[in-house]
Design goal:
single chain, mainly beta, Jelly Rolls, nine-stranded antiparallel beta sheet, 2 helices, 38% strand, metal-binding
């Protein structure tokens, strides 16, 4: 995270005695990245965060096998056809992934159990509904269009208010704002399309009583369920630069050129081996002879995973793409507007249309994406041939 926060009660100095009202010591926990060499926060627990009373291996109930994208082909997946039998953690339906990132879709109206991802950060995009994110750091109320970024190792759970649909990005490392948006000291620069004021983080402690509390833990070795002697949500205060936060896609400020700008202007976050981009309503390109629609392009180093979250996709008319669709355009394939889309948009501009209404989340990976069982179960097999119609 780019800036420091204090929530609740903390002592004036780090690593000094901090006593409870009954005279006992609060238990200090350092949550830190990259072996004490990067961002961190100090959390102060009422009980020992190390006290577990049971551990058991967990066998996943949902298949997570990935298959190579062979024969190489552009793909269209209809997440609208997917239904989940679990919560927003155990009900994740794997769409695609590689050694750097896993992309899943989940739909649920039930609270999740407590969960800790110890493999990497997570970024959860809320497509529909509202949900309460509870963690040892506190609470974030999230709704449609919110990205919720969760640091590695954060114990948390999701409590939906009715049915919620989310896209889940599970990284093999840390998810951060792009370096080019930040000063050398971590402040958002003036040219950045969002800033610190747009980020929402827990504002007060969230203390829950409980004993023998199970927590599902994901590691590189698989899933384990640890049972803690006391509830992990017992933090009376914390401070630092590492914490979960939410950012709403509607607060992204699109960067516009006279002619069509490439996807890096939409970049929102970066992770190891991938980037996350936000496509938001924006003014159309305004050069008098502009072609205000993406040109055919071949990003030779990336696979492009696009989740269509809302709005109207004029460049994709005739392809079958709709709200809730996912397109996957792999390296090795040139893609672009559907036939007739360029002429249609130029005509629309001539009639006075000046803005786009599309809303989408794109994940570009720098290693090929393999296909998950959920994607294969909802694939549109005719999509690859729509440019030849």
């Amino acid at each position: 995270m780019p800036y420091y926060r204090v929530v609740g009660e903390v002592p004036r100095k780090r690593h000094v005695q901090f006593r409870r009202p009954d005279g006992g010591l609060y238990a200090e926990e350092l949550m830190g990245e990259e072996g004490f060499s990067s961002d961190s926060s100090l959390l102060y627990h009422r009980h020992l965060p190390t006290a577990i009373v049971k551990a058991e291996a967990v066998t996943p109930t949902v298949g997570a096998r990935l298959e190579a994208n062979l024969p190489l082909s552009p793909r269209h997946f209809r997440t609208q056809e997917l239904s989940s039998a679990g919560d927003l953690v155990t009900g994740r339906m794997l769409l695609a992934g590689n050694g750097d990132v896993r992309l899943s879709y989940a739909v649920s109206d039930r609270p999740s159990e407590l969960y800790r991802d110890s493999m990497g950060d997570e970024c959860v995009y809320v497509q529909r509904g509202t949900v309460r994110f509870e963690s040892a750091y506190g609470v974030i109320e999230a709704g449609e269009g919110d990205y919720v970024v969760i640091p590695t190792g954060t114990i948390h759970r999701w409590v939906p208010d009715g049915q919620v649909s989310v896209l889940v990005i599970e990284a093999g490392g840390h998810i951060r704002p792009p370096k080019r948006y930040l000063s050398q000291h971590g402040q958002f620069l003036e040219h950045a399309p969002y800033c610190e004021r747009d980020l929402r983080a827990p504002a007060e402690p969230f203390v829950v009583e409980g004993e023998e509390v199970p927590v599902l833990v994901r590691t590189r070795g698989g899933l384990t369920r640890l049972v803690y002697r006391n509830h992990p949500f017992d933090v009376v205060g914390w401070d630092g630069c590492l914490y979960p936060f939410a950012f709403n896609i509607n607060d992204f400020e699109p960067i516009v050129k006279k002619t069509h700008a490439p996807p890096p202007v939409h970049q929102t976050f970066e992770g190891p081996g991938f980037v996350v981009c936000s496509f938001c309503p924006r003014p159309l390109d305004y050069h008098p002879e502009a072609v205000p629609i993406p040109y055919n392009h071949h990003n030779v180093d990336s696979d492009e995973f696009m989740f269509y979250a809302g709005g109207d996709y004029s460049a994709r008319k005739g392809s079958g793409i709709d709200v809730g669709s996912v397109s996957l355009h792999p390296a090795g394939f040139t893609h672009g507007p559907q036939p007739g889309a360029v002429e249609a948009v130029i005509e629309a501009v001539g009639r006075g249309v000046t803005t786009t209404s599309e809303m989408a989340v794109m994940v570009d990976t720098f290693r090929p994406l393999d296909l998950g069982p959920a994607a294969l179960s909802c694939e549109d097999p005719a999509y690859a041939w729509t440019w030849a119609r």
